[in-house]
Amino acid sequence: xxxxxxxxxxxxxxxxxxxxxxxxxxxxxxxxxxxxxxxxxxxxxxxxxxxxxxxxxxxxxxxxxxxxxxxxxxxxxxxxxxxxxxxxxxxxxxxxxxxxxxxxxxxxxxxxxxxxxxxxxxxxxxxxxxxxxxxxxxxxxxxxxxxxxxxxxxxxxxxxxxxxxxxxxxxxxxxxxxxxxxxxxxxxxxxxxxxxxxxxxxxxxxxxxxxxxxxxxxxxxxxxxxxxxxxxxxxxxxxxxxxxxxxxxxxxxxxxxxxxxxxxxxxxxxxxxxxxxxxxxxxxxxxxxxxxxxxxxxxxxxxxxxxxxxxxxxxxxxxxxxxxxxxxxxxxxxxxxxxxxxxxxxxxxxxxxxxxxxxxxxxxx
Length: 365
Known about the structure:
Strand content: 5-15%
Helix content: 25-40%
Order of helices and strands: HEHEEEHEHEHHHEEEEHHHHHH
Radius of gyration: 20 Å
Mean pLDDT: 91
Strand order of the largest sheet: 1-2-3-4-6-5
Number of strands: 10
Structural class: alpha+beta
Largest sheet: 6 strands, antiparallel
């Protein structure tokens, strides 16, 4: 197991569960009740609510209903209040992806309704079912046995493989995005978003913005991509090592499955800090599959060839730096929605430097 230091955060303690809602994140209970009455089949009030600790991008609430909260529980996810960057905080995309995937048996919550009128609660939101299971944050899975860890990682790989095998047209997501040139579109998008929220000059980031679009590998397949597929965006069954819900679909679209899969595989190289990273720990002793085993399992399940991933790692870290730069700007502006956001915002420069090293390994001079 990795040594616990002062810099190691107990993310599961900090991020799992709910807290009372701060004044700045409170909802209009009357308006929310009226919306539930009009849109949620089987709703029976009254409503009480708390806010999930995680989710600094889109504030997320647990909605309990019925006398003393003993009725059905739901999850409400909304855009932040205030001015937003173009195409950011796409709760409508999250809703569309889950609504399409749920009838296929893919593990996502059931959706109940999307409200695109910001006049109701102050921003767009949607409501979905509550996935009652385990939310794991520490990639080393310290509370599990080696056999359980292996099962959990294989379940994680199998689930993303199944997503990438889903028939786009059959599930009704033909118009969910352009199928080709995924990485080019993502690089363009996050370059623009980064510049819109830039708070300091980072020379390596400017070089990546120039180099990445000139060196994109060929895209050999098109699929639904999640865009942020990692351990803490999954809910596992309470007692079985299987995924019962994949969450946080705001970056989902159509595109290159290898770019999506490589984002997951980055965790084998990211430093272990109490979150998904596995770098520097003895994964063999823990029972966690190696990179080679993970790739082999994905390839066997999908049939997609997986090329050397250094370029994809550089791309994904660049993209993540762009996303977190947006959080950093919101922290500075005072609109970030979780206490964890400030610490997250400090990761921009290290992420850029990590991306730059992978880019150099992929041929950047």
